[in-house]
Amino acid sequence: xxxxxxxxxxxxxxxxxxxxxxxxxxxxxxxxxxxxxxxxxxxxxxxxxxxxxxxxxxxxxxxxxxxxxxxxxxxxxxxxxxxxxxxxxxxxxxxxxxxxxxxxxxxxxxxxxxxxxxxxxxxxxxxxxxxxxxxxxxxxxxxxxxxxxxxxxxxxxxxxxxxxxxxxxxxxxxxxxxxxxxxxxxxxxxxxxxxxxxxxxxxxxxxxxxxxxxxxxxxxxxxxxxxxxxxxxxxxxxxxxxxxxxxxxxxxxxxxxxxxx
Length: 261
Prior knowledge:
- By secondary structure, the protein is of the alpha/beta class.
- It has 2 domains: 1-83 and 165-257, 3-Layer(aba) Sandwich (Rossmann fold), CATH 3.40.50; 87-148, no CATH class.
- The chain has helices at residues 40-47, 70-76, 93-98, 109-114, 116-136, 152-164, 182-199, 210-216, 234-238, 241-248, 250-260, and strands at residues 2-11, 14-24, 29-33, 55-60, 63-64, 78-80, 170-174, 202-206, 220-224, 227-232.
- α6 (152-164) runs parallel beside α7 (182-199).
- It is globular.
- The model is unreliable at 255-261 (pLDDT under 50).
């Protein structure tokens, strides 16, 4: 579905991404892991149109989308969330979701004045859809809560909910588990799996929690120093000597050896 080929992104003399190529198959949950500074988020930003590549190409379902801005990719069904949630803190959780779809009738002055009935009907439909999304994510009890009052994990669920307010095809999740307690992380994982299996979402996610990665992702892609170091199942990756050396550390290696004895 998404093919990023020979992506380079340089900042002056620094090569944040240095010839990385990845492929995200339709219907998959692909994990992207690696040490800090490996270029994972930069690669995300290039694919999602936040940053233009220095060189290389990105295609989606065979269409060249290299360098398209985020709003254009949004309308094609490619969405990206960030490590730090970006909510409208003074608005309610429901209102945050209702803001997502573009081209709403109430955005036009003419409609706001002379087509109030149509505007109100659309708002009711959006509110109903938002409530369905919140129920799916099991946070419907927070519908009237100000988004700024949510915990870190609840904000991550809200960001995931935003993708459900439009016809998302592929969603890039950047460290969805950062700062999230284990209970909420399991809830987020459940929601990702359900969206993948029941609604056909394709996911690619950056995450450092290997248990979370192993539960959700196949394949797992490892980056280091701006390049792709390895790719395979979570089990294969955790047994890969180069990956252990570059990222996972000898502690995991010793743990796995002890478990095998």
